[in-house]
Amino acid sequence: MPKEHPTILVYYNEPEKYAELLREHGYSTIRVARTPEEAAVQLAGAEVILCWNFPETLLFTPEASSVKWIQSIGAGVDHLVTKIPEHITVTRIVDQFGAMMAEYSLGYMLFHNKGMARLLASQHNRKWEPFRADTLEGKVLGIAGLGSIGSEIAERALAFNMVVHGLSRGADKAGRVDVHFLASEWKAFVKELDYLVLTLPLTADTHHTIDRELLMEMKPEACLINIGRGGLIVEEELVETLQVRPSFTAVLDVFEKEPLAEDSPLWTLPNVIITPHVSGQSRFAEVGRYFVENLALYAEGAALKGTVNQSRGY
Ligand code: GLV
User: Fold this and answer.
1) Of 44, 93, 155, the residue nearest 294 (C-alpha)
2) Is the pLDDT of residue 276 over 60?
3) Quick one: how many helices (H) and strands (E) in the chain?
4) Average pLDDT over residues 111-122
5) Are residues 248 and 214 in contact, defined by beta-carbon separation less than 8 angstroms?
């Protein structure tokens, strides 16, 4: 006997789009909310929540007793893990961000390597200023985190004939890179790198991994790209490193506190590129398909795709 369709609450800035898609797939008990206040009103009786940044304190209220499963619209779930009641299953999107985030990483590696900022400045000043450009070929890239995003970066970097090093918790992904390091080997991992890309989830184990000591182990002219989470880095210590090492570059898409405060020293450091958390973005059609597939698995009582291991943190 198939289960009855669950009541679904969609919490997002454009919830109606998802609600319409769900209706097309035969789901009729759908509620929508755009703000925490609306979510508080719509929560009672909801069994499944499709959301981004759901106000997690609401999940401890009596109205949330019916909630069994939260499907997050994004990849990172640090805002949910350990902050919600344990009996609620959390699923995240896996496999959808790799291409976009690999393009972002390679794009900024090329921008850095080819001296594009300098070329644009020359053009702006109407100056013909040739210089010897570098190549990514043979440069050593380190990727911290070898899940679907890290693996797609590795694949593309190998096509540029870069030497790819990778760091991950277990050795099962070692085959995706030229040289593999475990999480106990951070110092050895960063030493040789020309580029370091962080794709790690933020967990108790990865929080503030990149501190002054580790940064000082890196080559003074290396480039750090953070597309994981701001909390992976001790931000003040990165600022200090960038100040004392003018040849060191940081490309930062994520920050401990977003939006980045207007008075952050990062904005004006000449060796920093700041982007407003745009390297990987959820796409409606793909997320919609993923959720509908997961709803079918949920109805069968089967394992859901992207289920988060609460104790591991992702
Ligand atoms: C965005 O940062 C996400 O985790 O999906």
Assistant:
1) 93
2) yes
3) 9, 12
4) 98
5) no
Q: Which residues contact 267 (CB under 8 A, 6 or more apart)?
A: 260, 274
Res 2 pLDDT > 60: no
Q: What mean pLDDT is predicted for residues 205-222? A: 98
Residue 76 beta carbon below 6 angstroms from any ligand 1 atom: yes
Predicted confidence band of residue 3 (pLDDT cuts 50, 70, 90) = low
What backbone torsions phi and psi does residue 250 show, to the nearest 5 degrees?
Answer: -125, 130
pLDDT in tens, 12-70: 999 999 999 999 999 999 999 999 999 999 999 999 999 999 999 999 999 999 999 99
**Tokens 């400045």 sit at which residue?**
121
Separation of alpha carbons 38 and 40, rounded Å: 5
73 CA: nearest ligand 1 atom: 5
CATH of 98-274, one of 3.40.50.720, 3.30.497.10, 3.10.300.10, 3.20.20.70: 3.40.50.720
For residues 101 and 136, give the distance between their C-alpha atoms in angstroms, rounded to a whole number.
18
Determine which residue's CA is closest to atom 2 belonging to ligand 1: 76
SS3 of 97, please?
A: coil
What CATH homologous superfamily does 8-94+282-300 map to?
Answer: NAD(P)-binding Rossmann-like Domain (3.40.50.720)
Half-sphere exposure of 220 (CA within 13 A, CB side): 5
Active site residue 277: yes
Pocket test for ligand 1, best of 52, 97, 256, 278 (most atoms within 8 A of CB): 97
CA angle 75–80–81, rounded 5-degree value = 95
Q: Percent of the chain at pLDDT above 90?
A: 97
Q: How far apart are CA 241 and CA 211, in angstroms?
A: 9
